[in-house]
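Make up an example, fold above all:
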Amino acid sequence: MIRSYYGDSALSVRFYDVVTSIDPSVRGDVDVNFYADCLHSPGQHVLEIGCGTGRVAIILAARGHFVIGIDNSEPMLERARMKCRKLSPNVSKNVQFLKYDMLTLDLPVRFHLIIAPYYTFNHLKTPRLRAQCLAIIAKHLLPGARAIIHAASPDRLREARNAQSSVSL
């Protein structure tokens, strides 16, 4: 289901930025100051897992950090790359978008900060998969570095969905 949701002709890809800009559950997920405050100085290396269309990665790159965004959806990555082509060279040189799965990632670089915004971690449905992802994250962190994972329990997500669907307009 996830692959078709983020596939070539999926509406979710075409309207992802619109939906995330109005979805109240995303508020704060692109708070640049929150992520930037976890970095000690400009020019630090950031890995964004599940970068989608590059919303967060591009903002951090504009703040002077070197960002690698990974996602397993090529259509989402292509949207991120299209955005980069519109950026100034000073910003676009700071960000790179690569097709990788968060469960098999093996990059030759380590990071000052690794982030998994907007419920990316919730796509992992079993404790074994979550543990595997955490091991991958740990492997890519520099000593003393941080990881920020935006996640919620499945029960909490169901409660939020039920509350939204019960609101009448």
In short: The radius of gyration is 16 Å. Residues 74 and 120 are 16 Å apart (CA to CA).
